[in-house]
Each structure stands twice: as structure tokens, then as C-alpha cells.
Design a protein that fits this description.
By secondary structure, the chain is of the alpha/beta class. The protein has one domain (12-249): NAD(P)-binding Rossmann-like Domain (Rossmann fold). It has 8 helices and 7 strands; from the N terminus they run βαβαβαβαβαβαααβ. It has helices at 21-32, 44-56, 71-85, 109-137, 158-178, 196-203, 209-214, 224-235; strands at 12-16, 36-41, 60-65, 90-93, 140-145, 183-190, 246-249. Strands 3-2-1-4-5-6-7 form a 7-stranded parallel sheet, with helices on both faces. Strand 4, helix 4 (109-137) and strand 5 form a beta-alpha-beta unit. The two termini are 26 Å apart. 47% of the residues are buried. The model has no long low-confidence stretch (mean pLDDT 97). The structure holds nicotinamide-adenine-dinucleotide. Residues 16-17, 19-23, 41-43, 66-69, 94-98, 118, 122, 145, 147, 190, 192-193, 195-198 line the site of nicotinamide-adenine-dinucleotide.
């Protein structure tokens, strides 16, 4: 984790897709900074294992099995979090999926619906129920996970990039509406980060790590904790005047 440290003691963080990749790194960072953390993931076993590890280490975390494509499950996850910890102060809406590249003339309706359900509807449902609680509190900070794919097109990944552009529309629109409620809403736009998702892409021949590293100004892939660092900053008082922003954390990829 980069060096900046925060004290989130007494605050509660809600992280979707929190049991792997950049979600897991963000859960760890929030917990180490003293926050109560809800690990919200459809992979219940991994979420439970992470919560147990953090709790045994003296940190505060609960696991909540939840598929973000199901609004009722998301509503229940937010309720469980508030019942457990008393508030919901910070959220990282990170759960997302990517499918193998396809010619746009051949993409199935099923693939389209699957990606939209997680990447766009999942963020919609998560924000909706987080905002109900934050509106009631009169405070909160939300970070949505977009992608460099929210800023540029992607050859063979039309629907993924469309959803990530959509996440920026959700982020900016809610930021406009919720400033008056004391809620800030931002997005991170990660570049290629070494997570299980990228490991699967590399294993499937969809990604050449060396070429990806050579293709960005910083010359390497990112680490999940480098995304966590950006999320924690956006959730902290250090970013108190930042809302509606789409922050590239991409080694300069989209500056090219
Ligand atoms: N890894 C990258 O290079 C990269 C780059 C840009 C953006 N992103 C985005 O970052 C986010 C996290 O990516 P990652 O690489 O850490 O992914 P990952 O596949 O490594 O981990 C994703 C986590 O989300 C969970 N998840 C997936 N679908 C879910 C659902 N419907 N409900 C609840 N949980 C669900 C998984 O169980 C897993 O724990 C995604 O939104 C992804 O699109 C990733």
C-alpha cells in the first residue's frame, strides 16, 4: 500500500466484489485504517474467509453473500451493514465482470445482458440503497469502479466499455443530485491491474502482460493496492472538495 495513511475509526465501508482483486485490496486497506468493513460478494466462501482472517487479526469486518445483479440482495446487504455497524459512510461499488472479446456483429444478447446486469445494474442497485442511508445520515462518500474502458473505446469489448462509460454517467449524475445531502460521488478508472480477472485474461490468451506493460508510460501493470489507495483518498476528508470526478489510475494509458 502506498504510504499515505488514514484513520477511519468508527466509520463503515461497504465494498462490492470485496473478496478478490482490487475489491479485496480495498477491504484490507479500509480495515487496516480502522474502518468497519462489509465484504459484499457473490463468492460467499472467499468473503467469509477474508472476514475471518481480518477479524482474527483484530480488525472489524463482516462478510455478506450478495449478487449485485439482484436489487433485493443489495438492499438486504446495506441493511445488514447498517444493523451491524450503525452507519454507512463509504462505499466502493467495484463488482464487475468482463467476457472474452467478440466481433460486435456476433455478440449474443445473453452476453450483453450478463455484462450490463453486473457492471451497470449492479452499480445502480448499490448506489440506490447506499444513497437511502446516506441521505438519512446527511453524509457519505461513494466511489464507483469504472475503467480506462470508461474513457476510451475497446476493440472487441463494446459492451464492457459501454457499461464502464455508463458508470461515469451514473457517477456524475448522482454527484450533481447529492452534493446538497453531503454525499460525494466519484469514480476510479483503473488501467490493467494484476488481479484474478487479469490472470484469467492472460491464461485465456486475451492479454499479453508484457505488451500491456510496454504500452503504458509507467511501463508496468498496476497492483490492486494502488487502486485501493485512490479509493481511500477519494473517501477521505483529503478529497473533501472532489465530487463527480473520473480519476484515471492507469499508468498514463488514457493520456496517450
Ligand atoms: N483488473 C483490471 O485490470 C481492471 C481494469 C479496469 C477496471 N476493472 C474493474 O475493476 C473491478 C474489479 O475487477 P478485478 O480485476 O478486481 O476483478 P476480479 O474478477 O479479480 O474480482 C471481482 C470480484 O467481484 C466479485 N463479483 C463478480 N460479480 C459479482 C456479482 N454479480 N455480485 C457480487 N460480486 C461479484 C467476484 O466474486 C470477485 O470477488 C471490475 O468492475 C472491473 O471491471 C478491472
Amino acid at each position: 500500500m502506498p504510504e499515505l495513511t488514514y484513520d477511519f475509526t468508527g466509520k463503515t465501508a461497504f465494498v462490492t466484489g470485496g473478496s478478490a482483486g482490487m475489491g479485496e485490496a480495498t477491504v484490507r486497506a479500509f480495515a487496516e485504517a480502522g474502518a468497519n468493513v462489509a465484504i459484499v460478494d457473490r463468492d460467499a466462501d472467499s468473503a467469509n474467509a477474508l472476514a475471518e482472517e481480518l477479524t482474527l487479526g483484530g480488525l472489524k469486518a463482516i462478510a455478506i453473500a450478495c449478487d449485485v445483479t439482484d436489487e433485493d440482495q443489495v438492499a438486504s446487504a446495506v441493511r445488514t451493514t447498517v444493523e451491524a455497524f450503525g452507519s454507512l459512510d463509504m462505499a466502493f461499488n467495484n463488482a464487475g465482470i468482463m467476457l472474452p472479446p467478440v466481433d460486435s456483429a456476433d455478440e449474443t444478447e445473453e452476453a450483453f445482458d450478463k455484462i450490463v446486469a453486473v457492471n451497470l445494474k449492479g452499480v445502480w442497485a448499490s448506489m440506490k440503497h447506499e444513497l437511502k442511508q446516506m441521505r438519512h445520515q446527511g453524509s457519505g462518500a461513494i466511489v464507483n469502479c469504472s475503467s480506462l474502458g470508461g474513457l476510451v473505446g475497446g476493440n472487441g469489448r463494446t459492451t464492457y466499455h459501454a457499461t464502464k462509460h455508463g458508470v461515469l454517467g451514473q457517477t456524475k449524475s448522482v454527484a450533481l443530485q447529492y452534493g446538497k445531502h453531503g454525499v460525494r460521488v466519484n469514480a476510479v478508472c483503473p488501467g490493467t491491474i494484476e488481479t484474478p480477472m487479469v490472470a484469467r485474461m492472460a491464461a485465456g490468451g486475451e492479454l499479453d502482460r508484457d505488451a500491456a506493460a510496454a504500452g503504458v508510460p509507467l511501463g508496468r501493470l498496476g497492483r490492486p493496492d494502488e487502486i485501493a489507495a485512490a479509493v481511500l483518498w477519494l473517501c477521505s476528508d483529503a478529497a473533501s472538495y472532489v465530487t463527480g470526478a473520473a480519476l484515471p489510475v492507469d499508468a498514463g494509458h488514457t493520456a496517450q
